[in-house]
Amino acid sequence: MLNFLIQDGAEVAQDLEPIVEEKTLSIMDLLMTGGIAGQIIIAILFVLLFVAVYIYFERLFAIKAASKMDSNFMNQIHDHVSKGNLQAAKMLCSQNNTPVSHLTEKGLSRIGSPLEDINTAIENAGRLEVYKLEKNVSVLATIAGAAPMIGFLGTVIGMVLAFHELATSSGQAEMGGLAEGIYTAMTTTVAGLIVGIIAYMGYNHLVVKTDKVVHQMEATAVDFLDMLNEPS
């Protein structure tokens, strides 16, 4: 009988326990409840993210197009040059429209000059082609460094506002509201880090792709000069 009363009392006590509702937090809630300062910072980070993604894909497609090269290109150039048909060689270069073909065309236009002059002309043309490949890539590096700092700025502003509220309320500020303001402010740092990581990875990937094209250009320039050095 005693055990029955104890069990019954435990069940009643359990029924009387307050039901704790699990509080969910969505990303949109974080973005929209961060105050004006936080929303401005988030908007800036969204713009930076859009710019980073646009530059990445635009440069990626451009570099891929620049890296496409016919494996038989230099053999055809060699055949035309050996036959003295420089016009056909230049026509072949203009049809390919790649950095490698541009360098080769520059070298063809200087045939008859000393090899040192031809080498200098190819190097100058190579610098111009590399500049074209790296167009706007430095913006990705800037975004990768600036986005986390902008996010941290938003967090600092949010913390300042939260503690200002605590100070003006003589220490009587509601802790729930204070904590909500703090974790909302931290979202700007999270957003800044996400944008920075995306931009940093995109920048490094483009650098690797660009280096491959540069090595391809250097190898072609060496092959072209070797071709001119061949005995007649």
UniProtKB/TrEMBL annotation:
Its main location: membrane. It is a multi-pass membrane protein. Keywords: Cell membrane, Membrane, Protein transport, Transmembrane, Transmembrane helix, Transport. The keyword Transport applies. It comes from the Bacteria. Residues 97-218 form the MotA/TolQ/ExbB proton channel domain. GO terms for cellular component: plasma membrane. It is found in: Cell membrane; Membrane. Pfam families: MotA_ExbB. The chain crosses the membrane at residues 36-57, 137-162, 182-203. Belongs to the exbB/tolQ family. This is Outer membrane transport energization protein ExbB.
